[in-house]
Amino acid sequence: MAFETKQDQVAEILRERIIAGFYPRGMKLKQFDIAQELGVSITPVREALHILEAEGFVAGASHKGLTVPLVAPESAREIFDLRLMLERDLTVRALERMDTATLAELRRGQTIIAAIAGGKDRLASRTENYRFHFRLYALAGRPQSLQFTRVLWAKYPFISQELGGRRLKHVDEHETFLRHVEAGAMDLAAEAMVAHIRSGWNDLRADFADRSAAQ
């Protein structure tokens, strides 16, 4: 991905890290620590955090500075509905523009996801899943939809749906999608992606129900 400025590059790294769970929910983000981690000065980090605050990736709190917002379970349904609408459209448009280079990138990403899905590194698994989806969605050429979808991902409780073998399901569902693409069956591929997103929601609802019953 090409970036116009250093702050844009830092902002994208932080978006990915927030979505993947590198920075836990409720964590205070310290500019100095982030600058040290990324090997940059404070200025692009500060500007990047201002961008992310405007987008909703981070939130300001009295006497706490900027933190990664907590996820409200009661808002999950609305976020899912919006995700499904936007991601269906992005997928369809991306499939209309699919080329061999992007398909090869997605296949390489799938290979990485499959290799780490059964391991203990959940952060790596979430990161690679994010990259897989947004490499596909970027092909749609809809930057506003892409930005809104990233914000929705940042608000969605992905981490809680990793129970019950969800990461292994990701592998199978991505594989179904890719095989349809490779066969040129783009309508079936779009249906497979929608089914994949719905499957994640169904697992999340089951997780919420189990937690409620245990209380």
Topology, pairings included?
Layout: H1 6-20, H2 31-38, H3 42-55, E1 59-61, E2 65-67, H4 76-96, H5 100-116, H6 122-138, H7 143-155, H8 166-182, H9 186-214
Antiparallel strand pairs: 1-2
Helix pairs in contact: 1-3, 1-6, 2-3, 4-7, 4-9, 5-6, 5-8, 8-9
How would you explain this protein's 3D organization?
The structure is a single chain. Strands 1-2 form a two-stranded antiparallel ribbon. It has helices spanning 6-20, 31-38, 42-55, 76-96, 100-116, 122-138, 143-155, 166-182, 186-214; strands at 59-61, 65-67. The mean pLDDT is 88. The protein is globular, with a radius of gyration of 18 Å. It has nine helices and two strands; from the N terminus they run αααββαααααα. By secondary structure, the chain is mainly α.
